[in-house]
UniProtKB/TrEMBL annotation:
Domain of life (superkingdom): Bacteria
UniProt family annotation: Belongs to the cytidine and deoxycytidylate deaminase family.
Protein's UniProt name: Cytidine deaminase
Positions bound to Zn(2+): 52, 85, 88
Species, as recorded: Pikeienuella piscinae
Length: 130
Protein backbone atom coordinates (compact mmCIF):
# COMPACT_ATOMS: atom_id res chain seq x y z
CA UNK A 1 0.00 0.00 0.00
CA UNK A 2 1.43 3.35 -1.03
CA UNK A 3 -0.90 5.77 0.81
CA UNK A 4 1.65 6.45 3.54
CA UNK A 5 4.35 7.09 0.95
CA UNK A 6 2.12 9.51 -0.96
CA UNK A 7 1.26 11.33 2.28
CA UNK A 8 4.95 11.65 3.18
CA UNK A 9 5.80 13.00 -0.28
CA UNK A 10 2.93 15.48 -0.08
CA UNK A 11 4.11 16.75 3.32
CA UNK A 12 7.64 17.07 1.96
CA UNK A 13 6.43 19.14 -1.01
CA UNK A 14 4.91 21.60 1.46
CA UNK A 15 8.47 22.22 2.72
CA UNK A 16 9.88 22.87 -0.77
CA UNK A 17 12.08 25.92 -1.20
CA UNK A 18 11.04 26.80 -4.73
CA UNK A 19 10.74 30.59 -4.94
CA UNK A 20 12.12 30.69 -8.50
CA UNK A 21 10.21 27.97 -10.35
CA UNK A 22 7.28 27.88 -7.90
CA UNK A 23 7.25 24.15 -8.74
CA UNK A 24 7.13 22.40 -5.38
CA UNK A 25 8.17 18.74 -5.36
CA UNK A 26 8.24 16.16 -2.59
CA UNK A 27 9.84 12.73 -2.74
CA UNK A 28 9.36 9.86 -0.32
CA UNK A 29 11.39 6.66 -0.27
CA UNK A 30 10.41 3.43 1.42
CA UNK A 31 13.73 1.81 2.25
CA UNK A 32 14.46 -1.87 2.73
CA UNK A 33 13.72 -1.68 6.48
CA UNK A 34 10.25 -0.31 5.75
CA UNK A 35 11.13 3.14 7.10
CA UNK A 36 10.11 6.13 4.99
CA UNK A 37 12.49 9.02 4.19
CA UNK A 38 11.32 12.22 2.55
CA UNK A 39 12.78 15.34 0.99
CA UNK A 40 11.87 18.40 -1.07
CA UNK A 41 13.44 20.44 -3.85
CA UNK A 42 15.66 23.26 -2.64
CA UNK A 43 16.34 26.03 -5.15
CA UNK A 44 19.02 28.72 -5.09
CA UNK A 45 19.35 32.27 -6.39
CA UNK A 46 22.26 30.93 -8.47
CA UNK A 47 19.78 28.69 -10.31
CA UNK A 48 21.96 25.65 -11.22
CA UNK A 49 22.93 25.27 -7.55
CA UNK A 50 19.46 24.10 -6.55
CA UNK A 51 18.58 20.45 -6.28
CA UNK A 52 15.63 18.11 -6.69
CA UNK A 53 13.42 16.45 -4.10
CA UNK A 54 14.76 12.98 -4.86
CA UNK A 55 18.38 13.60 -3.74
CA UNK A 56 17.02 15.25 -0.59
CA UNK A 57 15.14 12.04 0.22
CA UNK A 58 18.14 9.89 -0.74
CA UNK A 59 20.31 11.94 1.60
CA UNK A 60 17.89 11.39 4.50
CA UNK A 61 17.90 7.64 3.78
CA UNK A 62 21.68 7.34 3.58
CA UNK A 63 22.19 9.42 6.72
CA UNK A 64 19.84 7.02 8.55
CA UNK A 65 22.15 4.18 7.56
CA UNK A 66 20.10 2.66 4.71
CA UNK A 67 21.16 2.08 1.12
CA UNK A 68 18.33 0.14 -0.55
CA UNK A 69 15.16 1.69 -1.99
CA UNK A 70 12.03 -0.52 -2.08
CA UNK A 71 9.58 2.06 -3.44
CA UNK A 72 9.60 5.77 -4.25
CA UNK A 73 6.91 8.41 -4.71
CA UNK A 74 7.35 11.80 -6.38
CA UNK A 75 4.62 14.33 -5.60
CA UNK A 76 3.80 17.61 -7.36
CA UNK A 77 0.68 19.67 -7.99
CA UNK A 78 1.37 19.82 -11.72
CA UNK A 79 -0.61 19.71 -14.95
CA UNK A 80 1.01 16.43 -15.95
CA UNK A 81 2.17 13.70 -13.56
CA UNK A 82 5.65 14.59 -12.28
CA UNK A 83 8.26 11.92 -12.97
CA UNK A 84 11.88 11.98 -11.78
CA UNK A 85 14.15 14.04 -14.06
CA UNK A 86 16.93 12.26 -15.93
CA UNK A 87 19.63 12.94 -13.35
CA UNK A 88 17.36 11.78 -10.53
CA UNK A 89 16.67 8.51 -12.34
CA UNK A 90 20.39 7.80 -12.29
CA UNK A 91 20.63 8.84 -8.62
CA UNK A 92 17.79 6.47 -7.74
CA UNK A 93 19.39 3.64 -9.74
CA UNK A 94 22.37 3.81 -7.38
CA UNK A 95 20.15 2.43 -4.60
CA UNK A 96 17.22 0.74 -6.39
CA UNK A 97 16.73 -2.28 -8.64
CA UNK A 98 15.15 -2.07 -12.09
CA UNK A 99 11.87 -3.51 -10.77
CA UNK A 100 11.50 -0.87 -8.02
CA UNK A 101 8.12 0.90 -8.26
CA UNK A 102 8.21 4.66 -8.99
CA UNK A 103 4.89 6.35 -8.20
CA UNK A 104 3.82 9.81 -9.31
CA UNK A 105 1.21 11.52 -7.17
CA UNK A 106 -0.56 14.84 -6.72
CA UNK A 107 -3.37 16.35 -4.66
CA UNK A 108 -5.85 13.77 -6.01
CA UNK A 109 -3.57 10.83 -5.14
CA UNK A 110 -1.70 8.42 -7.39
CA UNK A 111 -1.38 9.54 -11.03
CA UNK A 112 1.04 7.07 -12.52
CA UNK A 113 3.23 4.10 -11.70
CA UNK A 114 6.29 2.73 -13.49
CA UNK A 115 9.33 0.66 -12.65
CA UNK A 116 12.69 2.40 -12.41
CA UNK A 117 13.88 0.13 -15.23
CA UNK A 118 11.10 1.40 -17.49
CA UNK A 119 12.08 5.02 -16.72
CA UNK A 120 15.82 4.39 -17.10
CA UNK A 121 16.48 1.49 -19.47
CA UNK A 122 20.09 0.43 -19.91
CA UNK A 123 21.14 2.41 -16.83
CA UNK A 124 24.81 3.22 -16.50
CA UNK A 125 26.63 1.00 -14.04
CA UNK A 126 30.30 0.47 -13.28
CA UNK A 127 29.57 -3.26 -13.65
CA UNK A 128 30.03 -2.61 -17.37
CA UNK A 129 33.64 -1.56 -16.79
CA UNK A 130 36.29 -3.32 -18.88
N1 LIG B 1 12.33 18.87 -9.63
C1 LIG B 1 12.40 17.91 -8.67
O1 LIG B 1 12.51 18.22 -7.47
N2 LIG B 1 12.38 16.60 -9.06
C2 LIG B 1 12.25 16.19 -10.35
O2 LIG B 1 12.40 15.01 -10.63
C3 LIG B 1 11.91 17.17 -11.38
C4 LIG B 1 12.23 18.59 -11.05
C5 LIG B 1 12.40 20.28 -9.21
C6 LIG B 1 13.69 20.97 -9.59
C7 LIG B 1 13.27 22.41 -9.59
O3 LIG B 1 13.40 22.92 -8.26
C8 LIG B 1 11.81 22.37 -9.96
O4 LIG B 1 11.39 21.04 -9.82
C9 LIG B 1 11.51 22.84 -11.38
O5 LIG B 1 12.31 22.16 -12.29
Amino acid sequence: MSADLIAAASSAAARAHAPYSRFRVGAAIRAASGAVYAGCNIENAAYPQGWCAEPSAISAMVMAGETRIAEICVWADSARPCTPCGGCRQKLAEFAAADTPVISAGPAGERGRWTLGALLPEAFSLDGEA
